[in-house]
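Sample pair:
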Amino acid sequence: MKRTERRLFEIGDEIEALAEAERLAAEELIYHQHLNDDAQRDAAVSGNPIDRADARETAGDVARFERHLDNLRRRRERLEAKRERLVGRLGSD
């Protein structure tokens, strides 16, 4: 098997792993968004300093997971583009 073909298989495996990590991160983001909604509501209703601190913390968690999910998507998209280039090269060999 040629090096390009081996690399294509490796990239395919990496894309698959990233897609699964993306799916899991999206599910976890939904969980954190629900927690954040509750925390924001509690902070708005009670005005308690502890509730406001919890609301800031949960908002930070949501932002962190959104960044994580965006990073995973970008990595997967770069690998998909690389795979397309390799497939094109494979066709020209």
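The chain has a mean pLDDT of 95.
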